[in-house]
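Running low. Got one?
___
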Amino acid sequence: MLYPQRFSQFTREHADTIAALLCGFLLFLGWFALHLGAFGLAFLLLPAAYVIGGYESAREGLTTLFKEKELDVDLLMIVAAIGAASLGLWRREYHLIIDGAILILIFAISGALEGYAMQRTERSIRSLMSLTPDTARILLQGKEEKIPISQLKVDDEIVVKPGELIPTDGIILSGYSTLNQAAITGESLPVEKTVGEEVFAGTLNGYGALQIKVHKPAQSSLIVRVIRLVEQAKTQAPPSQEFIDRFEKGYAKVIVVVGILLATLPPFLWSWDWETTIYRALTFLVVASPCALMAAIMPTLLSGIANGARQGILFKNGAQLEKIGKVRAIAFDKTGTLTTGQVQVFQVISGSEYTQADVLKAAASVESYSEHPIGKAIVKAASNLNWVSAIQVQAIPGQGIVGIAQEQQVIVGNAVFVQRYVINLPEELREMAQSLEQQGKTVVWVAQGSRGGEVMGVIAIADQVRSQAAATITRLKKLGVEQIIMLTGDNEETAYSVAKAVGIDRVYAQLLPEDKLDVIRSLQQEYQTVAMVGDGINDAPALAQASVGIAMGVSGSDVALETADIVLMADKLEKIAVAMHLGRRSQVIVKQNIVVALGFIMLLLVGNFLGNINLPIGVIGHEGSTVLVTLSGLRLLK
């Protein structure tokens, strides 16, 4: 049973090639039969060659004619071939039947070659689908059992052994390992993962065994969403392709009208004989057909999409690949985009009677009860110190937190809150705190309630600027982006501090989501094509309004990911420059393809009217240009 299945699969995958080979074989036998004078055999073999080689084109052409009431190139090719055969029978010049069969053969070979060329892009896209295993090893009552991925439920616990693919997104419950995330994020280096961190389906586990808790349905995993979006991108034609499609429909009608005029008027106007007239009209139908023009755009854009996916850049459709190459202004969100979005302790300044360790331990004793990001940053910074958790802890939202640690009251919070418990704030610490705040840092005061209240020191908290942010801004400026802007809901001091660090001159601070939307609209009036880069829910309106919305894939919210047009799977800002370069290359290649396609059409038309080409040569020139521009588009796969 295995061999019939393989044969059936082979014939499905190579149907166009098999049809072309059979057409060529029957054509050769038919020509040989004519050469020997066996006309009866020839008239059996040649129609078979016509049917086998031209069936698919005729079916597509007639389907378009009857369902969409439109003429297309496939039907014109078949009409030209049948016209040549009819002319040959009428004039008893049977070489014209051979010419028509050669036309169909070359058209069939061209179709097979284009199919193989496009399969390269398809394979690059389909390779995403092989990144997830079919089964997962689930823990049931302490025992391992393999079940299909589709049967996984939220809160299931699965085991992934060294060297295995992660079957679905989840949170590590136990274990430590390095994961190769190249398929998802485009990062070449493995990433260390341990308890509490998220892992993604389709990533390759390294040396450690992991126990993972499923925290979202398998069909909602990141890789499944990527595959779904890439599949959508294949079917959505960008504006340039839609224009070419509309042009082709009108152009085909013009070809038919001009073809009819060429088949009837020359004998009366220029005294051509009818054989020459009809033959030139049939050749015109072939060489004037816009096949190469139709292939000038989509292979290029699909290749660019596949290239981007390999590098961790997800283009949701070809239109965005076109637009990113035309961007004149880019707006960046600050938190989570230009910065990591994860605050950490920047500096600890202690009072004269305390050490930095004393300040951190006291703060961590009460902040260990807090869910606030600042509290978590302080606890993380004190993780290597020995401290005791406080008791009777009380948090006052937006102000601070109080508790009892080692029989001492500990107060942590802003200056106004701490002043309720201490007599005064040391002037030296005040000046340092003010300087840090001017640099965009958040300052937390730490005090003890003993001896009438005493300040222990201050802790400066900062959201770290992404290491690649400054280099990315410089690269974008070199690429010719005219304006780079920062949009943030943060205060002006913090915003200008980050902007100065990364090289951005224009800053809009203290913005609400609707304010960001208004800024994008005003930028579009000034620069037309504007990109927005963001990661949060509050960025979604601006991402949707922008000509090109770019979301951070790892840190981005689901709303931002769904709204954006391009997703940076690795959260690497430098990929924006890569995406822009891909967009610009695609535009160059598309323009080159259009010039080549139109150039071939004009050259063949002139040759036809001068009588220097016959039908087979016209077909070779026409189909050769089509294959040429298709292969040209595949350059973006590299």
